[in-house]
């Protein structure tokens, strides 16, 4: 367990974790969230050590803090993909299909080495601050790709709607994906 983590062994520690989870239940009406809270409460009550890290992650106690720079970068990435998604929905169907065929226009999550980024993304989704879903593709794009996209997006972000040409400039082309990784 990370230093300073809640105590899952003592009765007082279990009560502390269960109380935190029950408080989390009170302020949310999303059934999936409620079910996961109840699942975590069962883990603590039954003493299932194997799943303690899942409970710690869910209540926001992780082994490493999320630096402010990471949080800001994740928020910028989410805003960019929100903007791309909204703009795609306003294009004629044929143009939107073309952009999606040529480029990665959907958020593909973060690679394993960027766990702190994923942790903050999960926090944003759980707190319903952003609803950008992770779209799994066979060769997902990475943090390097997102940063490259953000650099190109900077000149267009003030436009209410992105055009087909703007999105083609911002998004990673499917044939270029491997070049950026190398």
From TrEMBL:
Q: What is this protein called?
A: YfbU domain protein
Q: Which organism is it from?
A: Jeotgalicoccus aerolatus
